[in-house]
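Please check this chain.
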Amino acid sequence: MTRTVFENAIEARGLVKRYGEVQALDGVDLDVEAGTVFGLLGPNGAGKSTTVRILTTLSRPDAGTVRVAGVDALRDPVGVRRAIGVVGQKHSADPDATGRENLILQAELYGLRDRSRVDELLERFGLADAAHRQVKTYSGGMVRRLDVAIGLIHTPKVLFLDEPTTGLDPEARADLWAEVERLAHEERMTILLTTHYLEEADRLASQLAIVDRGRIVARGTPDELKAEMQRATQSDTPPSLNDVYLNHAGRAVAA
């Protein structure tokens, strides 16, 4: 499938957001290169969720500019929504509908009449045999795979994954990691990942940003961030990503 290529799939400049007296974002700049997995880390209340809400057009910044997949998110939010897929922390599937019905409904919302995409995703995510069962009979891992399939139904240019493996057992988590890697490497899909599993970020993300108190306090590849800390501390032992995170944010990582 041919994709329109952008140098940066996400560009944000000077994002500011206040909720009353609370400064949620204080001048966030963000560049996400097209075709990469970008990890966004930060403790609870750091501004990570607010940033994602703005990038996905669920909230408007008080100041700043945003472009997603080449579309101005403030001037054309509908255009951005057509170009992105969002897999949130909460399940998006209707538990009383079947897996296939959920995908068909989402396809129709995007004006897709061809059912081949539905069948392709059911097969890819190992849900073909359960396609005609109600989602409420699915295991947690199956529901999460369906959530991701729903987010991919319209072949988005940018996929947002918000804590995608929370609550999954190790096998289901490994399966989802493999699919994220496949999307990035084979389809060159841009993926913005938020996670509180630092092992997950270290494995999947080619670039990372750490948000704290409404600002980006560190950015780079996982290896760059570790090397930078090792130089700064003059340690003989290479730091882990968890060490890097605690050095910059100093609080327990959270959603």
User: Anything to note?
Assistant: Residues 8-252 form a domain with the Rossmann fold fold (CATH 3.40.50.300). The first helix runs from residue 48 to 55.
